[in-house]
């Protein structure tokens, strides 16, 4: 069983819509959760980190964590074409990160 | 503050050769992790170094090795290269305070092509 699972997509949304990205993880001891964005040919860059159950908002981005369901999600409001990228969910159970395979998001102008 | 730097950015080798990749972490960061990224397997953890000691290791063969120097700079070595080693190798650094807010920041990566 993979540590972290994401829908590979591609996920296409129109400009201005809300994009919803989902991730489940298997290790219940995980305490830290991260969302990274990776543009084609570039390295991952951190968007959000979340450690407690509930929602965390940062600009157009909202991360949601439910430890009981072992589920973390990322919502992108007012999606822009510049948001088109692969979004990687990462979980940190013990000093290293386990990544999902990523969801490719395309925002259509 | 300067980000994570990796050298070289691109590398072409042939099967059987060996390669050494270098990573300089963000100033003050003591933990350096290495990842391999391929289209089929995604981002896979290779190993993590902290204070010159390998603290964690992923499921890669012994041909993959690394080390960390006293200034936290790290090198990764791959011996007896195989075609399947062609990948983007990413280095990430973190402060590694042991707390929850231990975020990893990635370098630009080294693109290795094995012919």
Number of helices of chain B: 0
Give the overall silhouette of chain A. Answer: globular
How big is the Rg of chain B?
A: 14 Å
**Overall SS class of chain B:** mainly beta
Shape of chain B: globular
| N- and C-termini, Cα separation of chain A | 37 Å
What structural class should be given to the helix and strand makeup of chain A?
mainly beta
Mean pLDDT across every amino acid position of chain A? 91
- Residue runs with pLDDT of under 50 for 5 or more positions of chain B: none
Please give the share of residues in helix of chain A: under 10%
Could you characterize the architecture of this molecule?
The complex is a heterodimer of chains A (109) and B (115). Chain A has strands at residues 4-6, 11-14, 19-25, 32-38, 45-50, 54-58, 61-66, 71-76, 85-92, 98-99, 103-108. In chain A, the strands form 2 sheets. In chain A, strands 2, 4, 5, 9, 10 and 11 form a 6-stranded mixed β-sheet that branches. A 5-stranded antiparallel β-sheet of chain A has the order 1-3-8-7-6, with no helix packed on it. Helices cover 0% and strands 55% of the residues of chain A. Chain A is mainly beta and 109 residues long. Chain B has 115 residues and is mainly β. In chain B, 0% of the residues lie in helices and 52% in strands. Chain B has no helices and 11 strands. Chain B has strands spanning 5-7, 10-13, 19-24, 31-38, 42-50, 53-57, 64-68, 74-78, 87-94, 105-106, 110-114. In chain B, the strands form 2 sheets. In chain B, strands 2, 4, 5, 6, 9, 10 and 11 form a 7-stranded mixed β-sheet that branches. In chain B, a hairpin with a 2-residue loop joins strand 5 (42-50) and strand 6 (53-57). Chain B is globular, with a radius of gyration of 14 Å. The N and C termini of chain B lie far apart (37 Å). The mean pLDDT of chain B is 92.
């Amino acid at each position: 069983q993979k540590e972290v699972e994401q829908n590979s997509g591609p996920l296409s949304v129109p400009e201005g819509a809300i994009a919803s990205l989902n991730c489940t993880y298997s290790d219940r001891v995980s305490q830290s959760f991260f969302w990274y964005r990776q543009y084609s040919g570039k390295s991952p860059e951190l968007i959000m980190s979340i450690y407690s159950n509930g929602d965390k908002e940062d600009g157009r981005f909202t991360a949601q964590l439910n430890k009981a369901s072992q589920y973390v999600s990322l919502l992108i409001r007012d999606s822009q074409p510049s948001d088109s990228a692969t979004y990687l969910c990462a979980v940190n159970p013990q000093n290293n990160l386990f990544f999902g395979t990523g969801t490719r998001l395309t925002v259509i102008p | 503050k300067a980000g994570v730097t990796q050298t070289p950015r691109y590398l072409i080798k042939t099967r059987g050769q060996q390669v050494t990749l270098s990573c300089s972490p963000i100033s003050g960061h003591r933990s350096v992790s290495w990842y391999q990224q391929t289209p089929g397997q995604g981002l896979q953890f290779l190993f993590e170094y902290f204070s010159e000691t390998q603290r964690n290791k992923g499921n890669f063969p012994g041909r993959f090795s690394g080390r960390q120097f006293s200034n936290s700079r790290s090198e990764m070595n791959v011996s007896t290269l195989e075609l399947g080693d062609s990948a983007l190798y990413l280095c990430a650094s973190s402060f590694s305070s042991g707390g929850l807010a231990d975020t990893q920041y990635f370098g630009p990566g080294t693109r290795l092509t094995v012919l």
